[in-house]
Amino acid sequence: MNKFEENLEMFFSECREVALAENLCSNVEYRKLSKECCELMDKIMSKLDKDSRNLVFQLEETQNQKAGIDIDSVYYQGISDCIALLKSLQVL
Predict the structure, then answer these.
(1) Phi-psi region for residue 90, left (φ > 0), alpha (ψ -120 to 50) or beta?
(2) What is the model's pTM?
(3) Distant-in-sequence, close-in-space partners of 41: CB < 8 Å, separation ≥ 6
(4) What's the farthest any 2 CA atoms get from each other in the chain?
(5) For the chain, what are the domain ranges?
(6) What are phi and psi of 86, to 5 degrees?
(7) Distance between CA atoms of 30 and 62, rounded to whole angstroms?
(8) How does pLDDT run across 6-35, given as a tens digit for each residue?
(9) How far apart are alpha carbons 42 and 62 in whole angstroms?
(10) pLDDT in tens, 53-87
(11) What are the DSSP calls for the chain, one per residue?
C-alpha cells in the first residue's frame, strides 16, 4: 500500500468512526442496550475469580477485533457497491 492509499484509508476510517459515534450517541435504543450490557458485565465479573475475569477480558478483546474486521468488510463492500452503482448510472 502506498502513502496515498494509507492516508486515504486513515481518512475513511476516521470519518467512519465519527459518523458511527454520532449516530450511536443519538440512538436511544443503542444507549439503553449499552447500559444493559455494562450492568450485565458487572454482574458477571463480580461472580468470577481473577483468572476467569482475565479470560472474559480476552474474549471481549477478541470479539472486538473480529467485529472490527466485520465492520471493515461491510464498509468496503458498501464502497464497492456504490462505485458499481455510479458506474451503471454512468456518473463515473
Answers:
(1) left
(2) 0.60
(3) 56
(4) 61
(5) 1-47, 49-92
(6) -60, -35
(7) 22
(8) 777 777 777 777 777 777 778 888 889 889
(9) 19
(10) 999 999 999 998 998 889 888 888 888 888 899 88
(11) --HHHHHHHHHHHHHHHHHHHHHHHH-HHHHHHHHHHHHHHHHHHHTS-HHHHHHHHHHHHHHHHHHHHHHHHHHHHHHHHHHHHHHHTT--
User: What is the CA angle 80-21-79, rounded to 5?
Assistant: 5
Supply 4's cell numbers. Answer: 496515498
Residue 49: how many CA atoms within 13 Å on its side-chain side?
A: 1
Judge whether 56 and 44 are in contact, CB under 8 Å: yes
Give ∠ CA 17-64-48 in degrees, rounded to 5.
135
Type of residue found at 22: E
Number of other CB atoms surrounding residue 56 within 10 Å: 13
